[in-house]
Amino acid sequence: MPRPVKKLEKLEMVESRGLPPLKNKAKKSVSWSPQEKFSEQPPKFFQRQKSSIEEEVQAIEVQAEVKPPKKTGSTQPTPASSSSSSSSDESLSSDEHHSEVRDNFVADVSTPIPEQPNRRTSRIDSLKGLGGSRSLSRQLSSRYVDHLRDESAQANAAFQEHQERKNKRNRMADILVQDQNHADDDEAYDFFTKNWDDLGTTKHDQEDEEDGDEEDGGEEAVGNDDTKTLVKDVIGQYGYEWTITEKEVKSKRSKNADKDLCFVPSTVQAETNLKLNPNEKVRFLEEEGIYIGDPPFVPSRIQNKMENRILHEYLDGWRQGEQKRWFGQNGKLLALPNPILSHSTRPGEPEDLDPTLETVYCAPHKPGPNGEPAGTNIPGSGLNQAMPGLVHCFLEVDILTIVFHHHHLFSLEHYLASKLRERFADYQEILYRKAKLDLDRRIRVLYDAMTELKEKLEIAVQQKEREFQTRRFESYRKEVKVIREQRDEESGRERATIKEILTLWRTMRDIRRRQGYQSTNLKLTIHKENASLIDDQTQWEQELTREVDEARDDYHDNLEFLTKEYEEELRHWKQIHDMRKAAYKRHKKMKKDSEKGIGSAEVDEIAKDEELLASPEPEKPQPPGRFDEEHVRKMLEEKARQTRRPPGETILTLELSQSSNIDKDVQDNRETSRRHSLSKMKIFVKLFFNGKEVCQSSTKHIGEDFTVPIAQIFPLQITQWPETLKVQIFEGTKLKTSFLSEISLPICESDTVLDKADVNIIPFQSTSRVKHDNSGVGSCVDFSANGDGSSITSQPTHGKVFVRVGWGRTSDGTILSPPAEKWSPPKSRMYGQDPLEDITDVNGRIESAKLDVWMTKNEIDPMDPKNQDLMDRVLEAGKSNVDRPDSNDRNESSNSGSGYAPTLQGGGHFRLDDYHDQFLLGTSSAIENNPRFQMLKLRSSQVAEFKNYRMIPINDKEIPRGIFESLKKPSLGSKQGLLDTEPLRQKFKTYLEQLREEVNHNFAIARHKKRHCDVINEVPLPTSGTMAMLFGEMVPAQRPLKPYRFPRPKIILLDGQDLKILISVVRAFDVPVRNDMDPLQSNPSLQGKNHREESIHGMKENLVRSFVEVRFQGQCQKTPVAPGPNPAWNEEIEFTFKSPNNDFSSDTLNRIKDNLHLHLFDEVAVDMLEDEEERPREVHQRFERKWLGSLAIPFVTMYRNTRIEGTFKLHSPPVLLGYERTGQTSMASGFWRENTDMDQPPKEATYLSIYLTINPPLSNPEPIKEKLECEEDDNLVRHCEKWHRDLMSKFPNRVFSPMVADLTGKSVLVTRYFRAIRPPHDVLENNDQNPEKVAWFVALIPYLPRNALFPGIQAIWPTCEQFIKMMVGSEVEHAVLMTNYFTSLGKKAYLVLGQGIPEGQTAYVLTAEESGQHWLWNVVTGEHFNTSETFCPLVGVTAVANESNVWGNVQSSDAPNRMKWDLTNGSDWTPLFGSHLTLPDLSSVQPTQLSTSQPDQRAATTLKDKIEKKIKSHISSLRKRLKLGTPLNFTVAASLKRLLPALESNRGGIAEGRILATEHLAELKSASAAYKICGFPLHFGYSHMDQIVEALEATGVHLNREPGVEFAVAVHVEPFPQTVMSVWIYVASLVRRR
Amino acid sequence: MESGTTVFLLSVTGQIASADFPGMNDLYCKHCFVAGQDWAVTGGQEEGISQIARASLDGQRRIVWNFPLDITFRSTSPFGWPQIVISVFEMDSFGNEVIRGYGAVHIPLSPGTHNAKIPMFVPESSSLIQRFTGMIMGKRPEFVDARVVANGEGRDVTRVNSQGWVKVQFNIITKDLKRLGYEHSAQGANSEVKNQGPSEGMGLLTKTNGSGRSKAKANEILAGDGDEEGEPDNDRRVSNDQSSVQNMN
């Protein structure tokens, strides 16, 4: 870049010496005025210290804070030593120097130290080149003194001029100008393309050149190199720090230099004359008729700018012709025509594609012969290859005739004629074969030979010869047999054919006679030849005798063998017979024994005997009979009569000729109409080459004899390998044509010419059904074959095509075929037929019989490995055909995908996917069997167990064993379930699974569809409220002391983090106290301690020392013991949550079925002290725990709510033997709020206060907010949304949308879910309309938390029908069902949605009782609460709904006991339908009636037995682990059992309260006299066996270590409709009192 | 958990070198790695947050973090190859943290040193008025989860605006990749990915060999040292290869 600058400015520099430094300075400090500079600067140039200048420049360049010593020098002028010319030169060079040095610097830094010698030589080079300028400067220098004075003026002017220019220019312009002026093309090219690393060296060259200049101008300084040190060196010498300060420069630049440096091109159109060469005129080529394309559109503003910029940059360097680079002759910027076409050259894709044009997958093409892919071009041929001398391939197809063997326009006569012709052809063939084989003669010769041989045999003496002759004789005999058989067959066939022909002819003759005309020209001539009876007779006899002889010989030969066989069989039979006899005896004895009841027998033996006796006795074999000559003779004669001409029968010879005439005028209307339509019927063919239609023949009439002479040769010039050649035959009248049939033509060898080609006779058949009114018989239509109504038959149109195929030939005789070495016709099409057609039946399935024929015909070698696949298929096909004999069904079954037999429909060709395998990763079986692939597949298909599986091992062996078992389990389990364990619910389970799948499918798309707010966090659209908040934020809250609760942020758990569950067990209320009704209470040894306690305190309630045990995922912790009926523990317990696979994704967490169990136990100290004497000194006790109640909280509930807090009712048995409640105590103790209505009996329950949370809190997946498909009225939907929004804005935590999603993923208005449904009949046995009974029934339906039911999807409401079919559901389903039942009972029932404990979001049922109270029904337990009750598990009410309306709770409190329940009050409840919108008439989604199955008493009994067995075995196995025995007491069990039905009828005491306990005690009185009984009944709505076992285990009954403890178990199962089972289990441990 | 599993290792070191956000100052960045299910981190930090950096005062206004990355993955399958997700925030004058860019790029597949230039983008406000309030309140729209930029789901609902660039340098070492049958051909020095112009949404990856680096360094010093005028020109004139190198650093 510096060089051009130099040359350009040289001219100015000659005159203005002061300029260059100014330029330098201008950069650094613009504040300097030109005058100042001028006064200051010139002296600097006189000084000869070039190095100092350099240094200065360099120093300036790097902006180092170095004050080089040259500063002093520069201020002092040193005039004498140099001339003005040299100074101007100097100035010039120093100007250059500036840039040069800078570059030098750049170079020096970027590349290592440049080599000095090089520099010098190059400098010398440049010196030589600059001789001219040197002489000029010499001249100037001589006049230095004279000009000294003018200089100031000149310099001033020059400076100003320069300044002006500088303002106009920016750097870029400079560069361009330089390029334009000096840089030759190569350099310019280099400039952009050369590796910039070379920059340094090129700079050196330039620098050297400059050096030359300046040396020339002043002196040839020898020490130049020494002084020309680099800045780095200088700075290094001085030891200065490299502090880079740019600030100063930058600020200067930004202030003023911008103006100088920036050029803003104007947007005004530039003058045209500027753009052209001065001597040129504007030409408009377009007007002159020269084509100029449309230039691309550029806004004129931009274009003007560009033009101005170019003009500006070229202003100085404007040269002749230069504008040509940029501007055209019309004064516009040169531009190529717009490359973008205004219209599309490709047809656009139509919006909805024609279904016939749809893309379908085709398997890769079968390769053509010799490995050439089918359909590919024949090399060297083809029209597209315009090569000289290319090979044209002409395939010529000559379609000669089409002969119909049946046509729908055949009259009956025609049909018969055609049959006759067929038969006659057979006959002729038989005759021909007969003549050819001449079996009669051969057999005669053989006979002769045999007789001869026999004679020889007789006279043969030598043993050897004898043997030889015998062998010969044997072989003859065999041959004779074969030939005779053949002959018999042939002659039999001949006779049959003759017979048939004669019958046909007779029928035909009859028909002709009957109809009175003749429409065919066939005529059968029968030649008779009388045979001599005697000759025949003798021959016949001879033959028979021979045969009999032979048969006799055969018999004798075989006799030995047969006897042997007989003996063998007899022996075998005898054996079996004996065995049977023995077995029978044993059996009889055993029967007697069993009747008497004595003896024993091995089970196996009995079974064996029975089996033996059951099998039928084998028949006794018969010995081989003697040879019965008469019989044999008769048989042979019979046979001969059938096949051979009987003696004396006339010999018939037939001759068929077309000699008779067809009657032209026929009276029969039907016949005339037939002939008429036949005359109109035309036939033409289409020729298809490689599946593409190429030619069509002209239409031809069908002649009277139903032959169509097409006689057309179709020459095809082909460019592709011929693969298929097909002919389609069409028939029809002028207006209507119909497709008849398609046939494949064989493609000939490459040396076959048409003239020499054989005529191929190819049969065709059409399956189309045609019926005529005329005398035509139609095709595929039943008709009577002999015209009198008998022998009904039908015929498809069929016939034969006579065709020749050959290659074309040029005039000089060369065959126009593909080269022989590359072409051979496809082998499999030998017969010109699609082989598939040969072997398939009408349905496109392989027929094994046809396949066999085809295989023998084509001589498929089954041992050829190439045919392996085919043979396998054939085997399979054969098998499957056997499997499915019903051929009509086959098609459907194969379409449904279950059929394995290869189907040929829909392109399912079994052999044509040759290359398919190559595109597969592996064989499908390999992928199937690879566990890793399988896992990957399962994971990607989102199977629950694998969905979040991390790090699937790369090696198969590392995959954990048995990982797939869980997957297979369902199917296995279902099988098992059907067999034994769960026959009850299998149906429902499968239904649930189906539903789940369906729901997942329905919601999968919705879930993946994200909305803006799911992805992007954004400030919501400001409303007045948020705006206020926005400004309110600026003023902080004025109540700093008001506590504010920050919600813990919910997080997504990452790997490696622990999830903890924190439980704080606070206290319990109303724990039952011990109440042992021991009649022998005074026994001090057992009850001493307790007794004493009681006597001391005098209070019963101290008789309980309870603790809480918490179990979770096998972990177990407990609180310390606290005494009394209202204990307080305040104990914190922590668990670590373990997730399967360490997977903490919400999906998995939602599936976790673990429950947190809290069990309340009483700790009983059992005195073990044996010796009463020791008592004062020793304590020997054993603690025992007695279960009092428990509470289960599902993990999913914790997960969803994060925090569960409250007082929970413990699930405790209605009766606890040995314990009683002291309800009044708790009432008195003040924990209970005053009950307003005292007519309600106090609750019999124990309550437990806990606080439960998980840490860290986990974020829950948001429910799908996606606007689901909705069938409701738009207006309604909008109204619902508005209602919902209004409610939510006021009470953000009361969220309920009146639109809920149903199982199909549509949103439905919630009121549609309500409709009075009659409860099952059996629930309301006595028409007592007891709602409690209904509630009990509903509560017995198994419960599953919401998110476990449909994991990952919330707020789906199945209908009652679906619910009852699933037989499991969450609160909402229960509640909806209960509401509907209640409504049908005539109650006012509502669905209440709100917050409950422990389940969180829940649903209750609200009923308005007659007494004016409102009851809330817990749908899962069946209990009901008064709205005014304290310990109602429903803690918050959001909305209430029934079939007519939805009410949102707008009261300040949402606790049921603090709310007003008058739904009509608008200030308390805001209805959805009211003033704005009345409820539209909506149909309910519920059915009017639920079909429920009858209660199944039998199932209940089996279930009862099963449960009993299971419990007993479980207890004993648990105790076995403790090394304890499990004796069962049946007496107590029986009495317990008696108690259970009462419990059921009382519905677990919900109805009657505490009366039960006394009842129980009364019942057990006798037992309790002998035993200390501790037991309780448990109740379940049956869902699963494990649930029962788990609950039982949790009670710890089995832990009784008392020696001699006995157990009593009683089970009662009450069946309800729809297999709902109420299970009662009474478990008691009995300790014998001493 | 599966200690006995055969895995291959991918070690990533490097740094989030600098960023180029015209007109913005006081930026910091967060990064995290997103990998598929078959990937696990054996060592190193999966997430990080950098210091707040001011733009340099030279013409380039470069924001330099030089925030180190060091992480090792182990994996059984290349499916879900890890990506680095970078989100850049600005501290505005009110002290609000405003999102200035999201970007992601796959960790290079082949061992060696790679430079990535990641184009950044931010989601746009869905309406003008929201844009206005967002500007006032200093709450520009953000992605709920920055990992969105590493996968394709849910992007169809967003509109984004391009911002600046973040330059990341990766040094990759793999172990056992070949042994487990995975090969990547991009091994030699020829594999250098040339600057193909800014492709929207994808980070640019270039691989540098040793000499290139030293040259680049030299250029960097040069660029940092001065020649304020030359810089824009240089960028244009220097051959493609080098400019990319220079930009990378």
Describe it.
- The complex is a heterodimer of chains A (1634) and B (249).
- Chain A has 1634 residues and is of the alpha+beta class.
- In chain A, the strands form 10 sheets. Chain A has a 7-stranded antiparallel sheet. In chain A, strands 1, 7, 10, 13 and 14 form a 5-stranded antiparallel sheet that branches.
- In chain A, a hairpin with a 4-residue loop joins strand 34 and strand 35.
- In chain A, helix 2 packs across helix 6 and helix 19 runs antiparallel to helix 20.
- The longest helix of chain A has 64 residues.
- Chain B is an alpha+beta fold.
- Classes of the chains: A alpha+beta (1634), B alpha+beta (249).
- At the A-B interface, helix 6, helix 11, helix 15, helix 33 and strand 15 of A face helix 1, strand 9 and helix 2 of B.
- Chain B: It holds the Pfam family B9-C2.
- Chain B: This is B9 domain-containing protein 1.
- Chain B: Keywords: Cell projection, Cilium biogenesis/degradation, Cytoplasm, Cytoskeleton.
Give the topology, please.
The complex is a heterodimer of chains A (1634) and B (249).
Chain A: H1 2-15, H2 19-28, H3 34-46, H4 50-62, H5 70-75, H6 84-110, H7 116-129, H8 131-142, H9 144-168, H10 171-181, H11 185-193, H12 199-217, H13 224-227, H14 231-238, H15 247-261, H16 272-275, H17 300-313, E1 393-406, H18 412-437, H19 439-459, H20 463-515, E2 523-529, H21 533-596, H22 603-614, H23 629-643, E3 651-657, H24 669-680, E4 682-689, E5 692-696, E6 700-701, E7 707-718, E8 725-732, E9 737-744, E10 760-766, E11 782-784, E12 792-794, E13 797-809, E14 815-816, H25 835-839, H26 848-858, H27 868-883, H28 887-895, H29 924-929, H30 931-940, H31 965-979, H32 986-1008, H33 1012-1015, E15 1016-1017, H34 1024-1032, E16 1059-1069, E17 1073-1074, H35 1084-1097, E18 1105-1112, E19 1115-1118, E20 1122-1123, E21 1128-1137, H36 1146-1151, E22 1155-1167, E23 1181-1194, H37 1195-1201, E24 1203-1209, E25 1219-1220, H38 1223-1229, E26 1247-1255, E27 1269-1270, H39 1274-1290, E28 1299-1301, E29 1306-1309, H40 1331-1340, H41 1346-1349, H42 1360-1366, H43 1371-1384, E30 1388-1396, E31 1400-1408, E32 1414-1417, E33 1424-1426, E34 1434-1441, E35 1446-1449, E36 1469-1471, H44 1497-1521, ...
Parallel strand pairs in A: 27-29
Antiparallel strand pairs in A: 1-7, 1-13, 2-3, 4-5, 4-6, 4-8, 8-9, 10-13, 11-12, 13-14, 16-21, 16-26, 17-25, 18-19, 18-20, 18-22, 22-23, 24-26, 28-29, 30-31, 30-34, 31-32, 32-33, 34-35, 35-36, 37-39, 38-39
Helix pairs in contact in A: 1-6, 1-10, 2-3, 2-6, 4-6, 6-8, 6-12, 7-12, 18-20, 19-20, 21-22, 21-23, 40-43, 44-48
Chain B: E1 8-20, E2 27-34, E3 39-44, E4 47-49, E5 63-75, E6 83-91, E7 97-106, E8 112-123, H1 128-137, E9 142-143, E10 160-175, E11 204-207, H2 210-225, H3 230-237, H4 240-248
Antiparallel strand pairs in B: 1-5, 1-10, 2-4, 2-6, 3-5, 6-7, 8-10, 8-11
